[in-house]
Design a protein that fits this description.
Blueprint: H1 2-52, H2 54-79, H3 83-90, H4 100-107, H5 113-149, H6 160-188, H7 205-218, H8 220-237, H9 243-257, H10 259-262, H11 271-295, H12 300-311, H13 329-351
């Protein structure tokens, strides 16, 4: 009798256990289904929002990526405070610039150079990574292919002769603007006539040529950022706004994205006036890049080139300005604004608000 009772008890426990397992499985299936439904809804909502506001989503992702990397940058700069001094020692006072091919081998020679190289490449790359992510959200692999399709010298509809002509005009314009700025420094600073046109560079002739040529395509700012600014943001803005308005909006977004990078202005009290002038410069440079981008039928590479030349690894902006000339940084920036504005007004007079926009992209 006792054995029978024990058997019934075991059988009852098994049935209860089986029922609990079945309920658990049903609950898991239900939760899994609900989870998939919610995930699908979230993906659909994200896709719909991104389709309505592609540039807004792109810019938010770019900012978030920058915020994620910023603490690592602070940590590295704190751990290796003498990096800049070490670079000066290794290069005998020449320092490093934004040209990847020139500066990368130099950075790797000093303590902490690997980490600095990572940060100096990763920070600007957030703009392009955001473009890749947003393109994937919109059209998956097809979106990424369409993004990289604009990584060209000019559109297929343009002849090589016409494309090369526009490229020459773009490079000549930026070099001319840089030279005019150096000239303006000398005029404002009342440099003596004997030294007025004396070439001033810390590089040898071969270094100068190498840095200039390679900076057209291998400037860290131009190469790492432009897939985002001119590859994704500009064409999407131009679907809604005129090229001029698109350039102004993009210039402001470009400027705001730079805040974590430009916060090293010292003293901090000068940051607001500096940043105001920097924003105007970003807008004006954005208009110039848009003009040549549109004339070439949508070319990320022209954005890379102009961006790289604007960053001025060779020092064209001081090519005839003596090192002894002392000038307030805000004055220097203001002169640069005036020169950029002159170029933009000429472009607007010639092309209007369409800035060389073509139907082909």
């Amino acid at each position: 009798m006792r054995i029978l009772k024990e058997s019934n008890k075991i059988a009852t426990n098994k049935r209860v256990s089986t029922q609990i397992e079945r309920k658990a499985r049903r609950m898991w299936r239900t939760q899994n289904i609900i989870g998939k439904i919610l995930e699908g809804i979230m993906k659909k909502k994200l896709l719909e929002f991104t389709q309505r506001h592609p540039v807004r989503v792109y810019w938010i992702i770019a900012i978030l990526l920058t915020i994620i990397i910023a603490p690592f940058a602070i940590l590295i700069f704190t751990k290796y405070p003498d990096f800049g001094k070490d670079i000066q020692t290794v290069t005998e006072g020449k320092g490093y610039n934004t040209n990847i091919l020139y500066s990368l081998p130099i950075a790797l020679k000093v303590t902490g150079g690997v980490w600095f190289t990572f940060i100096l490449l990763a920070m600007p790359a957030t703009a392009s990574m955001a473009a890749i992510i947003t393109s994937f959200i919109l059209k998956r692999k097809k979106g990424i292919k369409e993004l990289f399709k604009r990584f060209r010298f000019w559109s297929p509809e343009l002849s090589a002769k016409e494309g090369l002509k526009i490229w020459f005009q773009a490079i000549f314009l930026i070099i001319s603007l840089d030279f005019i700025l150096s000239l303006a420094f000398n005029i404002t600073g009342e440099v003596e006539s004997a030294s007025f046109f004396k070439i001033n560079t810390k590089y040898s002739i071969w270094e100068f040529i190498f840095i200039f040529v390679s900076s057209i395509f291998f400037d860290s700012g131009g190469l790492m950022e432009e897939l985002g600014w001119r590859g994704f943001a500009l064409p999407n803005l131009q679907k809604t706004f005129t090229p001029l308005k698109s350039s102004i909006i993009l210039g402001v977004l470009w400027s705001i994205w730079h805040i974590p990078i430009k916060m090293n202005v010292n003293p901090l009290s000068e940051f607001i006036p500096f940043y105001f002038i920097f924003t105007i410069a970003c807008i004006l440079m954005s208009i110039i890049i848009t003009y040549f981008y549109n004339r070439l039928g949508g070319s990320i590479l022209i954005g890379v080139a102009i961006h790289g030349l604007f960053n001025d690894s060779t020092g064209f902006k001081n090519i005839i300005t003596p090192d002894s000339l002392e000038m307030n940084s805000l004055m220097q920036s203001s002169l640069w604004i005036v020169i950029l504005m002159s170029a933009v007004l000429f472009i607007l007079y010639k092309e209007g608000t369409m800035l060389g926009k073509r139907e082909i992209e």
